[in-house]
TrEMBL record:
Pathway: Cofactor biosynthesis; adenosylcobalamin biosynthesis. Belongs to the precorrin methyltransferase family. This is Precorrin-2 C(20)-methyltransferase. GO terms for biological process: methylation. Its EC number is 2.1.1.130.
Length: 243
């Protein structure tokens, strides 16, 4: 039997109207769709996809064994998450081996901090795979914030706030413009680094981006309470002379 195709679909930063025409077409036809979620909650990618789904499709839900419970420095993290992604890949493989196409949903773009890259690693040599790019969270956020980011020879750096302070400080000192993701409880520490580097006045805090209730505000006006999952920091470049 001919294998089905695994379609890994980037669904964009939250607004269902920012799903690409290609992703919407595949969603509307796929006999099976799969998505990741935190246990007990509706997966964000599932919510974005809802208007575009084939109503007759089988749904495969993959609940993470944990999210922020273990730091990535804990040896159990990679062991347990690796086993989880192994199980996800085998579930997907069973449908593909039966000749069914499967749409695997991913918020933002699949290859930018996306969970879908891990089943991709495991299945790319076993079944046909097509990856549909999505609008990234960062581009959705800088559009909402009306913050042009780079021009001319500016460089753009993308960093996770989970990095150690010395690494963050070194990289931010070298960048013309930056996006800092995964803020969470690291926001106060990051603010201290930006204060030290003289970057706080340029920094913009964006929460929920293109989603309902999304907003952008100067970091200087934001308190130090932990940042929610759907938030990031923008440090626009464009500091050199421009047209």
């Amino acid at each position: 039997m001919t294998s089905g195709t695994l379609y890994i679909l980037g669904l964009g930063p939250g607004d269902p109207e920012l799903v690409t025409l290609k992703a919407a077409r595949i969603l509307g036809a796929a006999p099976v769709f799969a998505h990741f979620a935190k246990r007990g909650r509706t997966g964000h990618a599932r919510g974005i996809a809802a208007p575009h789904l084939n109503p007759a499709a089988e749904e495969l839900r993959f609940d993470y064994p944990f999210t922020m419970d273990l730091p990535v420095t804990d040896p159990r993290y990679f062991a347990e998450m690796g086993a989880f992604y192994d199980r996800c890949a085998e579930t997907l493989s069973a449908r593909l081996a039966a000749g069914q196409d499967v749409a695997l949903l991913c918020e933002g773009d699949p290859f930018l901090y996306g969970s879908a890259m891990y089943p991709f690693d495991r299945l790319r040599h076993r079944h046909p795979v097509q990856v549909v790019p999505g609008i990234t969270a960062m581009s959705g956020c800088w559009s909402v914030a009306e913050a042009p980011m780079v021009h001319g020879d500016d460089t753009l750096l993308v960093l996770p706030a989970t990095m150690d302070s010395d690494s963050l400080r070194t990289r931010l000192r070298q960048a013309d413009a930056a996006v800092v993701m995964k803020l969470g409880r690291h926001l106060p520490r990051l603010r201290g680094i930006l204060d030290e580097l003289g970057l706080t006045a340029r920094a913009l805090y964006v929460e929920r981006g293109t989603m309902e209730g999304g907003h952008a505000t100067p970091l200087a006006e934001r308190d130090d309470s932990p940042a929610p999952y759907f938030s990031l920091l923008l440090i626009p470049g464009r500091q050199d002379p421009r047209c």
